[in-house]
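Customer escalation, tier 2.

The customer says the design service returned an amino acid string that "doesn't look like it belongs to this structure." They asked us to rerun it and document both sides in this ticket. The original structure tokens are below, unchanged.
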């Protein structure tokens, strides 16, 4: 019954009457509270929880390397929202904030040398790198800073083609080499990796982000750019490797189409919009997770915007409908898929970032693709999350339907959900 009622709700509420509670400045209060609680303002990276004094490194107070770019996304949204509102001072401040966050992360993470697989401050899994590709590409598109595009293209190439220093064979599972298509999730072991094989793990969290990254780089690439005439070349026991520093605009689109089509066939149910977490060999499995739904929505939306092909828009809407009508049915709000038996385990804490990721890609579907029927759901999350904040800190935990205990341990991940959604809602409403 809940599913039916909510589906009707999406249709009948007129979007023009919607407005988030709290007044025009509430969105800034929510974002400022998040930064006050979780930003290490000596390093300009984010802390793991509200109980950590400093963001030292992995497992010592710093938020996960793959989640830091989502916090940069929030700053980019704050900058864009200030522009929308005509707030010149805030726009200037947040533009500088974006730069400082990226600078802080570069300092923390080895100058963004994506070929350095140091376990404490480096890069040791493909999706960690690709999340940064997405944010750096977006930072270029929002600011015009060429350095960010160069870094984004470098990180994309490292994921796709592999690394001469690390010795992995790259995330791309080349069908012509008998690897079956799609993108591999990891190289193993982290030091001295073996070559990936066709049946190794191909997770949604690398495949759909690769499509998003390729499409953002397609948007960023000059139309008249030729191929890289001096690519990096190396040989190892697994073969001969060629890694261009960048691709042509057409090639980025080709890559995105290929990985998206493979991913829909192997990781998703096109009829329902459900996205499985992973594929090993011939079997797709793992519970659907909100962040995978988000990158599926974003991939399809970006391809629709670039090509005008309705099939992509239909898939994006199916992914959104499944997220809302099935996965969010219990509360009518986005679920936080934490491990209820071990909620403060690091892996469980990190899942609190999932709603912020989902919201980022719903922004594309609602605003750029014109699908405003989803505004009531976005508003419901914002209103409930803001009203259930801890009144002393302004922070909301990751379950927007429940009051927040400000004395509790709260991950920056879950703490991002309400302010991230609030910024996005204000941008698209």
């Amino acid at each position: 019954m809940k599913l039916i009622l909510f589906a009707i709700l999406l249709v009948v509420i007129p979007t023009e009457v919607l407005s988030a509670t709290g007044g025009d400045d509430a969105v800034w209060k929510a974002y400022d509270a998040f930064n006050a609680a979780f930003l290490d303002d000596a390093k300009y990276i984010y802390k793991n929880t509200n109980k950590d004094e400093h963001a030292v490194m992995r497992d010592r107070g710093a938020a996960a390397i793959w989640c830091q770019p989502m916090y940069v996304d929030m700053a980019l949204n704050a900058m864009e929202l200030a522009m929308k509102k005509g707030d010149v001072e805030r726009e200037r401040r947040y533009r500088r904030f974006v730069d400082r966050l990226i600078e802080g992360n570069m300092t923390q993470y080895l100058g963004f040398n994506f070929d350095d697989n140091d376990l404490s401050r480096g890069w040791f899994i493909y999706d960690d790198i690709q999340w940064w590709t997405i944010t750096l590409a977006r930072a270029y598109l929002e600011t015009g800073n060429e350095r960010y595009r160069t870094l984004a293209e470098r990180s994309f190439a490292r994921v796709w083609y592999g690394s001469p220093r690390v010795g992995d064979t790259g995330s791309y599972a080349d069908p012509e080499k008998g690897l079956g298509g799609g993108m591999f999730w990891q190289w193993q072991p982290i030091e001295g990796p073996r070559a990936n094989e066709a049946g190794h793990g191909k997770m949604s969290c690398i495949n759909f982000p690769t499509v998003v990254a390729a499409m953002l780089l397609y948007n960023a690439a000059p139309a008249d750019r030729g191929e890289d005439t001096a690519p990096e070349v190396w040989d190892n026991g697994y073969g001969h490797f060629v890694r261009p520093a960048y691709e042509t605009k057409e090639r980025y689109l080709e890559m995105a189409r290929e990985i998206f089509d493979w991913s829909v066939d192997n990781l998703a149910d096109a009829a329902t919009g459900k996205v499985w977490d992973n594929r090993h060999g011939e079997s797709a499995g793992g519970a659907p997770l909100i962040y995978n739904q988000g990158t599926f929505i974003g991939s399809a939306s970006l391809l629709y915007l670039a090509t005008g092909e309705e099939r992509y828009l239909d898939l994006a809407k199916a992914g959104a409908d499944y997220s809302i009508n099935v996965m969010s049915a219990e509360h009518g709000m986005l679920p936080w898929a934490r491990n209820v038996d071990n909620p403060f385990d690091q892996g469980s804490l990190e899942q609190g970032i999932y709603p912020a990721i989902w919201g980022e890609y719903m922004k594309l579907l609602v605003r750029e693709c014109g699908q405003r029927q989803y505004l009531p759901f976005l508003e419901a999350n914002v209103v409930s999350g803001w009203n259930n904040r801890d009144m002393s800190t302004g922070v909301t935990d990751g379950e927007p339907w429940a009051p927040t205990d400000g004395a509790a341990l709260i991950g920056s991940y879950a703490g991002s959900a309400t302010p991230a959604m609030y910024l996005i809602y204000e941008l698209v409403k």
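Tier 2 assessment: The sequence is consistent with the input. The mean pLDDT is 93. DSSP finds 15 helices and ten strands in the chain. Sent an explanation to the customer and offered a walkthrough call.
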